[in-house]
Amino acid sequence: MKSLLNRIAICLLFTVAFVGPGRAKPAKSLRIFFIDVEGGQSTLIVTPEKHSLLIDAGWAGDRDADRIKSAADLAGIKRIDYLVITHYHGDHVGGVSAVADRIPIGTFIDHGPDIEDSDAAKALYAVYEKVTSKGKHAVVKPADGLPFKDIQVEFLAAAGDHLHDPLPGAGEANPYCGEIKDVPADASENSQSLVLLVTYGKFRFLDMGDLTEGKSLDLVCPNNLIGTADLFLTAHHGMAPDNHKALVWAVHPLVVIMNNGAHKGGSPESWQVIHDQPGLQGFWQLHYADDAGADHNVADDLIANTSDSSDGHFIEVHAYPDGTFEVTNSRNHRVQQYPMK
């Protein structure tokens, strides 16, 4: 009996040490999986009540769909309640058919028709339409949301339009807008990308999709309509100039995750803007950016995939309603906890 009591005491001490003094974490967390789809995007969000939102489906074929299904299995879910397609480029929408073959999808969400009309774009969109015709489908616009009960999901941009009224607590003048130079117009599907803000209590996660510079800056200049976010997924895979200082520094994230590939995104210019942001406490990458050089990559233990032989590892976030969260690298099991702002 004494031995059993000693073991219980040790377990309690470990729990207190892990959680930290004076605070007990809630039993349920919001889980976010940043899945490695080799320079595309696929982000799986699982709510505390086990409802699910998948943002984009990576490239066509088995590889990315299998990785998405593995993340869903790990999270213990058997269906995707909402599949949000930010826009119709192949690294975001290509995997929809293969994902739908592996796991039931409740409702497909997008910004409306594809604006690109190349043969390749038309073929990709036709496949997507065929899959969505078999299920529920909804088109969203800025200020729309999704009917989750335990988290809040808001769309801040869609189909080239954006939020026009500031979110609660936002709306202040952005001092970094004066550094903006001429911004070229973008007529690609990237300009149509959905932008999502996910809120769980005090925790806020901002996903910019592939929204490019001009449309992104509309959300924060001359006034910041978004406010701040605890966790920020880089715009357009960390490409420049789409992660402008006026965007990143205004949103002022505590932690940034770059969804780059080995040879896609992760530009030195964007990396430096993020790295230099005052108050930044964490910077993680899905891949080592081979073309950026050692000076523009984070430490290896904060990178999920450091070489071609290590592909397929993901980054996972557990977030809590008090604003605290922790980030885990599945490759090396490195865990870092972050306090609320």
In short:
The chain contains eight helices and 18 strands.
Detail the poorly predicted runs.
1-23
Number of separate strands: 18
Q: Label the overall shape.
A: globular
CATH architecture: 4-Layer Sandwich
CATH structural class: Alpha Beta
In the residues, how many domains can be counted? 1
Write the CATH homologous superfamily. Answer: Ribonuclease Z/Hydroxyacylglutathione hydrolase-like
Q: If helices are DSSP runs of H or I spanning 4 or more residues, what is the number of helices?
A: 8
Q: Could you estimate the helical fraction of the residues in percent?
A: 10-25%
CATH T-level fold name:
Metallo-beta-lactamase, Chain A
Attribute tags:
single chain; 341 residues; alpha/beta; Metallo-beta-lactamase, Chain A; nine-stranded mixed beta sheet; 8 helices; 18 strands; globular; disordered N terminus
